[in-house]
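anyone seen this seq b4? input:
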Amino acid sequence: MGNDVTFNDLSTPLSLLRTRRSGKPRDLTAPGPDTDQLRQILEIASRTPDHGKLFPWRFVIVPQESRPALAHLLEAAYRKEKPDAGRLEIEAMHQFAHQAPALVAALSSPVAGSKIPVWEQELSAGAAIMNLLHAAHALGFAGGWLTGWAAYNDDVRAAFGHEGEHIAGFVFLGTPGKPLEERPRPDYDKIVSVWDR
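predicted toks r here
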């Protein structure tokens, strides 16, 4: 795919899947999905493979008015872990919290004691996030799925989830403020083989 390709081509479902491209969260601008569109996106996200019908994931919407509180949480958690943090590190925490018009924290929420292995439940959470991105792109937005330091910090996780849950990612949604660029894709013959035993 060269620079002349249309990313997130909405002309057909297959063309959207073939041209899907995430947006860098720092480059996502308004408009983002409104309340009804975000509900639609999250309802579509929940239509994902889920062995045992456990719904081992959940979503936490972080509205714009809560972004300063998120920035404060990230800064406090980061300083607790790294007391000598520099100005640029702290600014990065604030930038993370304030980027893109819409933000959803996606949680892997495995059901303890189920006969379904936790690994399968975690795979389902990843599939739900992928559905979330597909739905956002189908509505004409772009999304970016990030983890990074914040997703693995215990204080941040505790602010979003319960014991046993994990932050599977922060999904930022909006409109690309810069042209989307292709990223390296794997060579088909290196990732696909035929089982011949």
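The radius of gyration is 18 Å. Strands lie at 28-29, 57-61, 102-108, 142-146, 166-176. kinda curious what u guys think
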